[in-house]
Design a protein that fits this description.
26% of the residues lie in helices and 47% in strands. It is built from 6 helices and 22 strands.
């Protein structure tokens, strides 16, 4: 029988167990993995809330245009200018009584940062402005000019017939009976600009002005304040943001492995609790004899059989092999372990006490009373027989 039991025990293989990791380390690692996973999932959610396509404004072309005026006043002979026949812009005051006529010149320039098809159409008008009425006259009709490249330039000459406009003002005064105090003449270059580049077209109007006083001893000529203009052609395009896709892929790549790591950490690892002295002893016992020990959830029922306590698990193991009986293990907490070998008329027992010390049964040499004594293995303890009061010592 004994040989058969030994043969069967040799065939047994140990059960697959989880990887034991100290509880604090295990929980700390799992906590770190969970934090990293939560952070990556939040970042992944935020990345998916970002649009992969955004609209951006793209500048197709930039341009600037300017209109500048000049004039030449033809004068009668006079003492003030000592025989000068003409007076150009900025050379002096134009006195009305010594001026025969005035001719104006307009210079238009345009520059762009890209080659384009440029079309300019212009007309010239003169407008009399008063505090009561306005009246407009056409000097020249629409004149189109086409250019190709990054610039455009043209000039236009026109008369400034201030006497004609003064006479018109006087006639209207006679008709209406209303005297005009400060009439002015405004020359306007009405420019229509068209720029076509890469299929995009810009339409722009531009009106440089020249203001001239009427019915004054001196003729004051001033350019308008809005004789320069700049602009650009823009369009809205959909822009695919690859960085958003890369961000999504990055956080997904981080999230998935940590999700697997957490699952594996929970499934294949277990907490290796900090053991007391008795826990360490039990762990060593299970490591050495775990294949032959059967865990039970209740203590064996008491019967008429006698109970014999042995001094070591090795002694209990010898009895188990001789009888061909398994060792039963019962524990109610981590500091209490009891090991049994059951026979019909006898129960063999090895007990680890709650303080982690071994229990040894000795007999009083005088009255033969069985006495329990506890201690650490190898320790000598002093005992007193509870029956005859004989004192002695025993080695655990």
């Amino acid at each position: 029988m004994t040989k058969k039991i030994k043969k069967e025990r040799k065939k047994k293989t140990s059960k697959k167990r989880r990887i034991k990791i100290p509880n604090k380390i295990r929980l700390t690692l799992i906590g770190i993995f969970v934090i990293i996973l939560l952070f990556s999932l939040i970042s992944l959610t935020n990345a998916y809330q970002k649009p992969t396509t955004t609209q951006t404004t793209v500048t197709i072309i930039e341009y600037s245009q300017a209109g500048s005026y000049n004039y030449i006043a033809h004068l009668n002979e006079s003492l003030i200018y000592e025989g000068e026949e003409i007076l150009r812009l900025g050379e002096g005051t134009i006195f009305r009584d010594i001026t025969r006529n005035i001719n104006g010149t307009f210079l238009y320039t345009l520059s762009a940062n890209k080659k384009s098809n440029i079309s300019v159409s212009y007309s010239t008008t003169a407008q009399i402005e008063t505090e009561f009425w306005n009246k407009t006259y056409t000097i020249s009709s629409d004149t189109p000019i086409n250019f190709s490249g990054t610039s455009a330039i043209f000039t236009n000459q026109f008369p400034i017939d201030y006497l004609f406009y003064e006479n018109i003002t006087s006639q209207i005064e006679e008709e209406t009976g209303v005297v005009i105090t400060d009439p002015t003449l405004i020359i306007k270059m009405n420019i229509k600009l068209t720029i076509d580049t890469n299929g995009e077209t810009i339409l722009k109007t531009f009106t440089p002005t020249l203001t001239i006083t009427l019915r004054k001893p001196t003729i004051n000529i001033e350019e308008g304040t809005e004789n320069r203009d700049s602009g650009k052609i823009t369009k809205t395009e959909d822009f695919f943001d690859q960085d958003v896709v890369n961000e999504r892929n990055m956080w997904a790549t981080i999230s998935f492995p940590f999700m697997i790591i957490i699952i594996l950490a929970v499934l294949i690892t277990d907490s290796d609790e900090e053991l007391t002295e008795i826990g360490l002893i039990h762990k060593k016992i299970m490591k050495k004899y775990g294949e032959w020990i059967v865990d039970i959830i209740k203590t064996p029922k008491k019967s008429s059989s006698d109970t014999i306590r042995v001094n070591s698990i090795d002694d209990l193991m010898k009895i188990s092999e001789e009888l061909g009986k398994p060792i039963f293990h019962y524990t109610k907490d981590k500091n209490y372990h009891m090991y049994y070998v059951l026979e019909e008329t006898m129960t063999y027992q090895y007990h680890l006490s709650s303080d982690g010390k071994k229990i040894k049964i000795v007999k009083c040499p005088k009255c033969k009373t069985k006495i329990e004594c506890k201690g650490i293995s190898g320790e000598t303890v002093h005992i007193t027989c509870p029956k005859c009061k004989k004192k002695g010592s025993a080695k655990i």
